[in-house]
Design a protein that fits this description.
- The chain starts with 8 loop residues before the first helix and ends with a strand.
- Helix 8 links the parallel strand 4 and strand 5.
- The protein contains eleven helices and nine strands.
- It has 290 residues and is an alpha/beta fold.
- Helix 1 packs across helix 2, helix 1 packs parallel to helix 4 and helix 6 crosses helix 7.
- Helices cover 40% and strands 19% of the residues.
């Protein structure tokens, strides 16, 4: 059994870090700081300026429990209950994929087009397929005050989380949700269809990092036998939901550029414009529909 945690902020941070080092987690200093700050309500500045600041017993108990969960492999942001994405704090739930920085590439890729349409037409209508936390749609809405978005997901819990996130960041009046298996229950036409679809090969799910395999919902990961099933659905079924001048933006696995391009070209689209993530990996394709 671990020794009791100290109640002074500086020693508490050191002990939290030591526990996570012993557990072999990837980034013990960062995760220890995130956990301690979140459950104690303190800041990095306080830890430096007042390391003897006393933490109350309830916070100590919460930190102790959180450190145990992290040491057992649960991702730190699942423990905190939120993840930052594009400057937004988004709540997580068991039905949502944890949004990751790579997906911000999709937001950046399509944002200039959203701004152009909104300026020209007074609004831009966005459809976010597999919305999860709402990350893509809400990032675009936060950047373009006249845009509107519909978040689609097959999981009711994900839609509830996305709607709550929209309300928390002040865009709830411009964000609607539809429970649908891809386009099945979707109506209307959109200037942008965006998706970070499942693209992991079914047989590779078991080889993912424990933190992804055991805590992200399988529905948000499994792209079928070859990882391309969702792209085939989007390419085949999107056209009736697109405005005359519009874009489809999809996140891809870093080895899937050619295959996804081929799928969309076979459906009548020109080759997609490629965008790479901060690591230099192929990450997003944007297709035009004229």
């Amino acid at each position: 059994m671990a020794d009791p945690l100290p109640n002074a902020l500086g020693p508490l941070l050191r002990e939290a870090r030591a526990r996570l080092v012993a557990a072999g987690v990837d980034d013990p200093p960062l995760d220890a700081r995130l956990i301690v700050e979140h459950f104690s309500g303190t800041t990095r500045t306080q830890a430096i300026a007042d390391p003897e600041h006393e933490i109350d017993s309830n916070a100590i108990a919460a930190i102790d429990a959180a450190l145990g969960r992290r040491a057992a492999g649960e991702p730190v942001h699942r423990i905190l209950g939120y993840r930052e994405f594009y400057g937004l704090r988004l709540a997580l739930s068991p039905e949502t994929l944890e949004p990751r920085p790579d997906t911000e590439t999709l937001v950046e890729a399509v944002l200039p087009f959203v701004k152009t349409i909104a300026a020209r037409e007074g609004s831009c209508r966005i459809l976010d397929l597999g919305t999860g936390t709402g990350a893509i749609a809400l990032a675009l809405l936060s950047a373009v005050p006249t845009a509107t978005a519909t978040g689609v997901d097959i999981a009711a819990g994900a839609l509830a989380t996305a709607a709550r996130n929209a309300g928390q960041i002040g865009v709830g009046d411009r964000f609607a949700t539809v429970r649908s298996d891809w386009f099945e229950k979707v109506s209307g036409r959109y200037h942008v269809i965006a998706a970070n679809p499942p693209y992991i090969l079914s047989r590779d799910i078991g080889n993912l990092q424990d933190e992804v395999r055991d805590f992200d919902p399988r529905l948000a990961l499994d792209g079928g036998v070859d990882g391309l099933t969702p792209y085939r659905i989007i390419a085949a079924e999107a056209a009736p939901f697109l405005e005359a001048e519009s874009r489809i933006a999809v996140e891809i696995g870093h080895t899937q550029r050619n295959e996804v391009n081929d799928i969309f070209r076979a459906a009548g689209y020109a080759a997609g414009e490629l965008f790479r993530d901060l690591g230099g990996n192929d990450r997003v394709l944007v297709f035009q529909w004229e």
